[in-house]
Amino acid sequence: MATPMTQRPHDLVVWGATGVVGKLICEHLARSYTGKLRWAMAGRSQERLAAVRQEMSKTNPACKDVPILCGDVGDQASVDAVVKVSRVVLSTTGPYALMGTPVVDACVRMRTHYCDLTGELPWVRKMHRRYHEEATRSQVKIVNSCGFDSVPSDIGTLLIADYMIKHLGKPLASVELLNGQAYGFVSKGTLSSIYGAVINVPKEEKAANNDPYCLNPPNSKRGPDKPDGFWISYSKAAQAWTAPFIMGPYNTRVVRRTNALLGNFYGDGFRYSERQRVPGPIVGALVSSLFIIFGLLALFPPLKPVWKNLLPRLGGKPTEDTMKNGFWKMQLIGQSAPDSSGKATTVVAQLSDKRDAGYNSTARMILETGLCLLEDDKLKQAGLATGGCLTPASSCGLMLADRLNHADFTFKISTVDGKPI
Ligand SMILES: NC(=O)c1ccc[n+]([C@@H]2O[C@H](COP(=O)([O-])OP(=O)(O)OC[C@H]3O[C@@H](n4cnc5c(N)ncnc54)[C@H](OP(=O)(O)O)[C@@H]3O)[C@@H](O)[C@H]2O)c1
After folding, report:
1. What is the CA(123)–ligand 1 centre distance, in A?
2. Is this structure's pTM higher than 0.85?
3. Taking a C-beta distance cutoff of 8 angstroms, is the pair 235, 134 a contact?
4. pLDDT tens digits along 336-356
5. CATH fourth-level superfamily of 5-143
6. Is 144 in the pocket of ligand 1 (CB under 6 A)?
7. How far apart are CA 277 and CA 179, in angstroms?
């Protein structure tokens, strides 16, 4: 029998606190929330966790009392023991296809809300199939992809939809996300996850991976989107050349699931795409070619062991330079359906952060998502889902955009038909 949420000793547990992202989450907690929130660190090594706590105590001396909880994903009983004493678990032990399931399983059984940083399509689909119904019934929120993948895509689209539909009273036809400039490393963990999501995909999952609506709940409405394009294109709305964006094939499916979970709030004919902004067609053709070459090599089975070793080595760790100078910028362009005179309205949102996307920004995004889930009553009042395998936008709505804006991100509507608002 699960202990009622209100009687649990910890509001939030960072599972994987000794990892690169886990430590950064602890740092944000140490700086901004220690003393205001009952939080704990979890992982498999008491000694390594104690070292992290010692480090955090330098940032905030009150951290010396932060509880340490030990559990190993290879031992389900130890995972259960950690999960049942928390209201929300932030899981950073990836690759999730290898290490994520015991934590989700425990959260569903113990009725503990859950957030992670996965971008692994086959694993996420497996979690939906296995746990969506039970989590819905038990009112547990299992929220995948709460980092750079896929918070900006998902919350940015909700911002535009809300403005277009509720504020301007117009039907939304499409949103196009353009990833802009960024500075920072892709993490080793992320590259290991790409191996699991793109290269080491079980045979029976390959066809589903290509379906643009493969994350939608069964029997939900589909829309007009086609499989992702892998060549350059010119965006009329942005007046810019674009190439494929590496996380587009994942994030687009998350946004479409959100639309389905929100009862098709964005519209039945809603179209969504994600692209990388490039300086011109030549650079665009180069980026697209690299994408296609990687795709072909990734599908060539004899190269599987090479990728398995190579990909994690290509990742970097946060450095003093990326911690100081890291940033990312994105633009989302929403268009309404044309009115009776044939004119469409364009709403643009600017999203950015002055932290590197892969580590520092991601750590803050998952933390703010977890903190948002603690506000169960407010989320319910806002009409959001009380349980299920959810997305950042379908679980937290625009409350997450507000939290992110308070945490130094920019998630704002900037122009309507070219006029600043
Ligand atoms: N864009 C995004 O949304 C984004 C960005 C960054 C990362 N990520 C994802 O986040 C995940 C974490 O990335 P990272 O760079 O922080 O990875 P990492 O540094 O390798 O950290 C992994 C964590 O998992 C723990 N762990 C490993 N095996 C375990 C076990 N058997 N039982 C319990 N804990 C175990 C590790 O503990 P030990 O210290 O004991 O080994 C460590 O705390 C990855 O899956 C990555 O893809 C996503």
Report:
1. 16
2. yes
3. no
4. 999 999 999 999 999 999 999
5. NAD(P)-binding Rossmann-like Domain (3.40.50.720)
6. no
7. 6
